[in-house]
From TrEMBL:
Record GO cellular component, one term: membrane
Protein keywords: Signal, Transport
Stored Gene3D superfamilies: 2.40.30.170, 2.40.420.20, 2.40.50.100, Helix hairpin bin
Signal found in the keyword field: yes
Sequence ranges assigned to domain CzcB-like barrel-sandwich hybrid in this UniProt record: 85-229
Protein name (Swiss-Prot/TrEMBL): Membrane protein
InterPro entries with a match to the protein in the record: Beta-barrel_RND_2, BSH_CzcB-like, MFP_Cation_Efflux, RND_pump_MFP
Family as reported in the entry's similarity comment: Belongs to the membrane fusion protein (MFP) (TC 8.A.1) family.
Gene source species: Pedobacter antarcticus 4BY
Signal sequence residues: 1-26
GO biological process: copper ion export; plasma membrane copper ion transport
PANTHER family: CATION EFFLUX SYSTEM PROTEIN CUSB, SLR6042 PROTEIN
GO molecular function: transmembrane transporter activity
Lineage: Bacteria, Pseudomonadati, Bacteroidota, Sphingobacteriia, Sphingobacteriales
Limits of the CusB-like beta-barrel domain: 239-306
């Protein structure tokens, strides 16, 4: 009976062991297949006909003298002397605005007119002072002649002289006040009284935002509009402390307009501040812009700048040799493990095959079609790479991984 029970248990346990062994074998095969596929995902082989069809060309890594740059961000701005607020010295009601926002104006051009009832009183005071000054001037000359003839007294002459100088300075002050308001004293003297005064452009440039309307009352010192001269536009860049000692006056700068399809303009460093900004902990660097192409540059535009700080003899490859995938950068190297014919092997059909493997790199300065690279693993001096067609190789590898 005991023998029968042992045989029965053995018959039940053997199938279980066989099933477990099969499942383990399948898992090991799947893992081996995955490892094999993972290796294939990093390599690809093409024959000469395929390489010619897709335009893949081979070359070597070379040493190039590329410009070393410091990257900085900033905004376009204009100097204070090229931006003006059109303000009023005396309050009043705007009776006319003759310009529109965005309109080009020249220095001294009429922009608007302000009506002010107090202006009439100023002109009346001016005429009264001039009429009174006629008598004072005549009396001063009479006392002066009497003194020279020895007939007058010094007391009367001093009194006439004091009155003459006082009224003369008062008239000059009123004349200056009228000129500041844009009114000619000569016209007032001729009887041409003004009930309003004009606003004129202090500089040549473009009309900015107009902050008032016709009929509105303007307090003294209020800005009605602004005029901006973009011909002297420059860039204020923020350079951080680690790069500050590399930046000097006179260095060339290449600007990319961040929100304008990365349009490029050039410039030159003209000034470096001597204090840190509170928020960014960087130093403001000023650069003038050479806008010979006449691009529409507006103060406030954001730019990315590359400051040329010198040249460096560095490892470089053609820019077409570098591809980007998932935030990383790669080149494709002919597999050095393939000994036959420097990485080429004969296939059954007699054609030659080239094996490429993907190598991650870090890039730096780019200039004249070449880009600086720093491979993440050792690369031999005679290593050959795909200088053209690297994107095709990347797409083939990506497609292969999808199928796996």
């Amino acid at each position: 009976m005991k023998h029968l029970i042992k045989v029965t248990l053995l018959l039940l346990f053997v199938p279980f062991l066989l099933l477990q062994s099969c499942q383990q074998g399948k898992g090991e095969n799947a893992e081996a297949s995955h490892e094999e596929h993972g290796h294939e995902e990093e390599e690809i082989a093409l024959n000469e006909a395929q390489m010619k069809a897709v335009g893949i060309k081979l070359g070597t890594v070379s040493m190039k003298n590329l410009h070393t740059v410091v990257k900085a961000n900033g905004q376009l701005a204009v100097p204070p002397q090229n931006r003006a607020n059109v303000s009023v010295l005396s309050g009043g009601i705007i009776s006319n605005i003759s310009v529109l926002e965005g309109e080009q104006v020249r220095k001294g051009q009429f922009l608007a007119s302000i009506e002010n009832q107090d202006l009439l009183k100023i002109q009346q005071d001016y005429l009264s002072a001039k009429n009174s000054f006629s008598y004072t001037s005549a009396e001063y000359e009479r006392q002066k002649q009497l003194r020279q003839a020895g007939a007058g007294t010094g007391k009367f002459f001093q009194s006439a002289e004091a009155a003459y100088l006082s009224e003369k300075s008062g008239i000059a002050a009123i004349e200056n006040q009228l000129r500041q308001l844009g009114i000619s004293p000569g016209e007032v003297s001729a009887g041409k009284m003004k009930h309003g005064f004009p606003l004129r452009s202090p500089i040549s440039g473009t009309i900015g935002k107009i902050t008032a309307n016709t009929g509105s009352f303007i307090q003294p010192g209020t800005s009605v509009m602004e005029v901006v001269d973009n011909s002297k536009i420059h860039c204020d860049l923020i350079v951080f402390e680690k790069d500050l000692m590399k930046v000097k006056n006179g260095q060339e700068v290449n600007f990319q307009l961040t929100n304008q399809d990365d349009q490029q303009v050039t410039g030159r460093i003209t000034g470096i501040n001597k204090s840190f900004e509170d928020e960014s902990k960087g130093v403001t660097v000023h650069a003038v812009i050479d806008n010979q192409a006449g691009k529409n540059l507006i103060p406030g535009m954001y730019v990315t700048a590359l400051i040329n700080i010198g040249q460096e003899h560095t490892t470089a490859v053609p820019q077409d040799a570098v591809v980007r995938s998932a935030g990383r950068e790669y080149i494709f190297v002919v597999d050095n493990h393939q000994k036959e014919d420097q990485g080429k092997r004969e296939t059954k059909a007699g054609s030659k095959e080239v094996h490429f493997r993907k190598l991650e790199v870090k890039t730096g300065t780019a200039e004249l079609g070449f880009i600086q690279i720093s491979p993440l693993e050792t690369l031999s001096e005679d290593a050959r790479i795909a200088t053209k067609g690297a994107f095709y190789l990347l797409s083939k590898i990506t497609g292969g991984s999808d199928s796996h």
